């Protein structure tokens, strides 16, 4: 289940870093750590985007000028989602970077039909390699067109699906078909323009700073419908609960609705 959490922005022109998922992750972790239900303190089966709104870029980061700002939050567990949003809306004032946000409303995204082939867009960077303390492995560059890239994401996805306890060993074994194919034209255009589709991003775990390489590009995924649904609702790759790996289906009406909302709230 995917929802859009809409906030009122009280100080237009305020800013956050270009990549601000770690600020959102710290806030979400705080809600869970200090919430009344201690069973959710270590819960990680959710995914979220960066903050969406009308922005302008400066050396400081992203400045927001729309009166409303949106966060896409996804979780297959409705009970957890209800708990999380209840805790969120108890917060009357929220500071993310220099943004002063007030929870406004929630919209549930309509379900999306996905078969064995789906074209996805990256709402937030995909991390195919986990980070490790005092180790540069998490920053390793891997060609998106390579089998290694797909294999790493397959291993991560099946491991996460298994951890949910919702799939039998027989089902997991049947999900052997998994191939990620980047949009070659997009990668070529970026390279020709001298732009990057892979960058180093910070994240924090147990107060320790890590750095990982994240990738952002459109791609086609060939996989079982159950796997497609899982990555759409839970993200793709590592550290999805820290705001990485969120996807949207190319051509999805939710993208158009968000663009229209930004224009209305400007």
Summarize the helices and strands and which ones pair or pack.
Layout: E1 2-9, E2 15-16, H1 21-33, E3 47-52, E4 55-57, E5 62-64, E6 68-74, H2 78-89, E7 94-96, E8 99-108, E9 117-122, H3 147-164, H4 169-174, E10 178-182, H5 184-192, E11 198-205, E12 208-215, E13 219-223, H6 225-234, E14 247-249, H7 253-265
Antiparallel strand pairs: 1-6, 1-8, 2-5, 3-6, 4-5, 7-8, 9-13, 9-14, 10-13, 11-12
Q: Would you give an account of this structure?
A:
The structure is a single chain. The chain is of the alpha+beta class and 266 residues long. The chain has 2 domains: 2-111 and 252-265, Alpha-Beta Plaits, CATH 3.30.70.1890; 117-249, Alpha-Beta Plaits (2-Layer Sandwich). It is 30% helix and 29% strand. Strands 3-6-1-8-7 form a 5-stranded antiparallel sheet, sandwiched between helices. Residues 259-266 have low confidence and may be disordered.
